[in-house]
Amino acid sequence: MKLTTLLLTLCLAGTSTFAQKVKYSKEERKEMNRYLFNEGFNTASDKKVSTIILKDNTEHQGYSKSWEKQRGQILSITIEDVDTKKPVKFAAADIAEMYLYATETEKSMKAASFISNMRNYSTKKYSKSTTDEAIRFENQTVSLKNKKESKAFLMQVINPEFNEIISVYYDPFASTTATTGFAGAPAFGGGVIKSYYVKKGDKVMWLHKDDFEDNYDFLFGDNPEFMKKYPKNSVEWDYFSFLVYQYTDMSHT
């Protein structure tokens, strides 16, 4: 009798969980699948004036010449001062924010990569790959891949238009899901970025797609309306940029 009762309880619990799963329409999934983050860049133009704002609010302008990195994240940068023409090196720990410009070469590479994957046609904006706008970097103290000793880095913000609550930073070493295609033709599917650095409140972490479900409540759980509309058993990592955007928008209404 007890076994029968236990099985019945488990069955009802499973039914309840299943009932909570939200089914989205084709149009809703198409919207959720849009990629809303900016492209990440690994180089900086030495032809355009970069701007560095230190923590003491002093501002320096110059041409990017070199930098020191760890796993693609900036530890220090050297610029040629726009007035004195002399090289000046700044440690990431002393910088509050920085604005650089992508090189034409890397922009062309991003554009070529965009064209080579048909998934991008419906999920990304082509202009994100070819922007002429300044790229924003912020000072963050973070443990690379949640394993290394925490250090101050300058990290590229890839959601500057909606980072009031959750900031997402480019992971230069992120891998992508596999694509399928034929020689000379655009690839189908795949191309989904597997990791980012994410900040909410005082916590900055490396977020991999495999850990998305475990961190879902931390990221979005303080907004009951959002959680009801986008419960974690109904959405996928592929929708991450949309979810951050939607969560931010719903938190302001």
Explain this structure:
This protein has helices at 2-19, 26-32, 104-115, 119-123, 212-220, 224-229, 240-251; strands at 50-54, 59-70, 73-81, 87-91, 95-100, 135-142, 151-156, 166-169, 195-200, 203-208. Strands 4-3-2-1-5-6-7 form a seven-stranded antiparallel β-sheet, with no helix packed on it. The protein is globular, with a radius of gyration of 21 Å. With 253 residues, the protein is of the alpha+beta class. The relative contact order is 0.14. Helix content is 27%, strand content 26%.
Give the secondary structure arrangement, pairings included.
Layout: H1 2-19, H2 26-32, E1 50-54, E2 59-70, E3 73-81, E4 87-91, E5 95-100, H3 104-115, H4 119-123, E6 135-142, E7 151-156, E8 166-169, E9 195-200, E10 203-208, H5 212-220, H6 224-229, H7 240-251
Antiparallel strand pairs: 1-2, 1-5, 2-3, 3-4, 5-6, 6-7, 8-9, 9-10
Give the tags.
26% strand, 7 helices, three-stranded antiparallel β-sheet, single chain, 253 residues, alpha+beta, seven-stranded antiparallel β-sheet, globular
Strand-residue proportion: 25-35%
Instruction: Please provide the ordered H/E string of secondary-structure elements.
Output: HHEEEEEHHEEEEEHHH
Shape: globular
Which strand order spans the largest sheet, edge to edge or round the barrel?
A: 4-3-2-1-5-6-7
| Helical content band | 25-40%
Instruction: Output the radius of gyration.
Output: 21 Å
Main sheet? 7 strands, antiparallel
Number of strands: 10
Terminus-to-terminus distance: 51 Å
Q: Classify the secondary structure makeup into a structural class.
A: alpha+beta
Average pLDDT number: 86
Number of helices: 7
Unreliable spans: 10-19, 184-188
